[in-house]
Design brief:
By secondary structure, the protein is α+β, with helices and mostly antiparallel strands. The chain folds into three domains: 2-98, Helix Hairpins; 117-165, SH3 type barrels (Roll); 171-259, Alpha-Beta Plaits (2-Layer Sandwich), CATH 3.30.70.100. It is built from eight helices and eight strands. It has helices at 2-44, 51-76, 81-98, 100-115, 155-159, 186-198, 234-251, 268-273, and strands spanning 123-126, 129-136, 140-144, 150-154, 164-165, 171-181, 210-217, 220-230. The strands form two sheets. It has a five-stranded antiparallel beta sheet. The chain has a three-stranded antiparallel beta sheet with strand order 6-8-7, covered by helices on one side. α1 (2-44) packs antiparallel against α2. It starts with a helix and ends with a helix.
Length: 274
Amino acid sequence: MQTFINNLINMASSFGGKIVLAIVVAVVGLLLIRLVGKLIKKAFEKSQANETVKFIITKAVKILLYVILVVSVVSILGVPMTSVVAIIASCGLAVGLAFQGALANLAGGFMILVFKPFKIGDYVSAKGCEGVVKDISIFYTKLLTLDNKQILVPNGDLMNASVTNFTVEETRRVDIDFKITNDVDHNFVKSVLIKAASATNGVLSDPAPFARLTGVDDDTFIFTVRTWCKTEEYWDVYFDLIENCSSALAENGIDDPEERIAVRIVDKNTAEKN
């Protein structure tokens, strides 16, 4: 019994100082981490950065500081650093494998918020999805389709895909094809289409409206009309352009080949002989 007590005394004298120092370092470290968090928050108050970016950076700094604190405390207690590093590496690998999808989405969300390939309110298309960006969170981007459906697209997929942003530029081009019969003068059709396009509300005069023969299919000519408009007026101009050009073609006797019916007259006597 006396031997056991002596051993406890020896251990306390050997490790007591390390334990006390480790406790002091832990307490001071926790206070410093809390102080650093407040300083970061205060610094971000004057920043124009996105709230999600602020949250990610603050959490990442705190996690890093906690890891440094744990390593420092363990080192003071005399645990071999090679063992500590091996444990941390193993834990990091396990966590990375378990949450690789979530981590990819997290990294993708961070990149989107930093580089801003699109913002809330933009109309985008990516990964087979298309709609207005309603929200950009840490892991997902929320899209709202034109028929009012909500789509959640993983941020990791967005950062690895080609994203088309339809609203980032101030102007857009409207392209529409019209099929007509091949028995009309090209220049006459061109003048009719350009006149109708120029008279359409929202069509810009610079660049000037374009209308040319762009294709031939059997007995059909294909004329393409191209005009420019403000991005926010795209759909109004698109539908108005179809209506105005179609009406102008009809008023000038220019037919759609699909509206014609081919009638073949066969002589009765010839048919009976055959």
